[in-house]
């Protein structure tokens, strides 16, 4: 059975640096063969089987009679319908600044000045920009669980950064009597997570990882962690999935927000998958080392837990101090998220050469085991600086705000090396809203309006107030600020911008603009036209392109307004008239909100009685008569006289024509008419000279 490994580089060179206050005053150099490390730390029991029942969230361990019978035993167990799954208990192995800390200049991953590390000169700024980030925030006490071979919490550079644990609960949520010493040991089943007190091997590994995350800053000792105010929960596991699952559940039950997993193996485990998914579904972030086999994790050989397709797992490759992918790091364009410093990384080292009196010194180490806690520290720093961020937002920031590296293009999903300053800047540095489309200082447009676009570096939302109103609701930058028909005089606009991560420009530093509206343009009147068709009644409707326009109107038989000037402006936009008959007129005037009045618009219409059909005149016959000429009514051709088909308004003698005879008749009877002017107008409209 293959074993999971702590992710170290093969044939790792470990360089020890003594702390003059706590150990020998000389530098020690130790070469360690990875094969030796694996042999020293492998503790698998290949006869153990993990069993998950459908009616329980816990797992149980059963043992096959021999390693050769593991597969047969699993098949037998899974034939039970109450069993969810059974699988071997796979092994998990370890993958092999601005402060007064004595070795701060050696922490190239935090601040690369081009310094030479172990004989290799670095590239300027090939780092995560930690000092720049600390200038913004050193974070708060975000809790990071280090699941590893144990953490020596007595090292003076981490002792003050350990989780208290005095009120801890076990992995099922039950209170642990007497509390915990900063974590738990799932190898020995006790509340003391110290690593084995033996010299050699990788017993320093968890302590080294913890120091990268949260070594104390400014204490005059050694190094500074990426998140110097974070807290470390130490959890020792037995390098197998069963104890790892309990460790993950313990971390979740005790409030850890981040888990660092600098270990892995090649076998998929459903139990491991379920435990990690439960942790991340609960809002946690799981940071995993990609592995040290120089392999493509997208290929046939996977590395777990790094390769699980679970939201909020961040898988990390290792880069060197020249911004190159290290020779040992695994990679994967779809399975590895980011790169982080992972070669020649200086951190804490407990020397157990004399177990009864450990020396607490410092050492360089290589591996994605170091790149993972570099990233876990960045997550802790970011989350500590902005605790309201969701886990998804934190992951997005860490993976999207890094520095793009050619060495990681096509090797990770992001192509970036993490940059904690960029991530912090995205949530802590407030940007100023930038306004475009503002009116001129003195606006003289016909219908004064406003349509302003809001933008700015990192701004996704905005709020505004116009003319001293209350702040508006939060609006996305895709929507402009609009206002129509502004009144004459001074106006003011204030805008504050906010990022997608909830960071807002302060109201005191709002972006402000003032301008003067001078509107002298009268509104128009639309929708009216003359109508000479002659109908019994007439309906008018009108409007204006200016939405603030109000109207006054007069309907009369006069072509000039007589009473309009005394009429009150209102919102009425329609009128009707059905009598008297004849020519009628409508006079309309508009006024806008700035008091500008339009000219009076006059339109005419003709009102007429409905046209009634008239029977045809009978045709006449010729006849003689003595002495009196015959009354021949018909023409010699035999055709009938013209047919009168309509009686026209104004036809006084009903002969089908409106002519001089009708005019004479009207004049004769003028004084007896009820409305002689309207009758006269009607006659004039229908006048025709016929026959």
Q: How would you describe the overall organization of this protein?
A:
This protein has 691 residues and is an alpha+beta fold. The protein contains eleven helices and 35 strands. The strands form ten sheets. The chain has a seven-stranded parallel β-sheet with strand order 11-12-10-13-15-16-17, sandwiched between helices. It has a five-stranded mixed β-sheet with strand order 23-29-28-25-26, with no helix packed on it. A four-stranded antiparallel β-sheet has the order 3-2-19-18. A hairpin with an 8-residue loop joins β25 (461-466) and β26 (475-476). The radius of gyration is 46 Å and the shape is elongated.
CA-atom Rg in angstroms: 46 Å
| C-alpha geometry | elongated
Helix content: 10-25%
Number of strand elements = 35
Biggest sheet features: 7 strands, parallel
What fraction of the residues are assigned to beta strands by DSSP?
A: 15-25%
Terminal residue distance:
123 Å
What is the structural class?
Answer: alpha+beta
Provide a count of the helices: 11
User: Stretches where pLDDT falls below 50 for ≥5 residues?
Assistant: 8-13, 18-45, 620-647
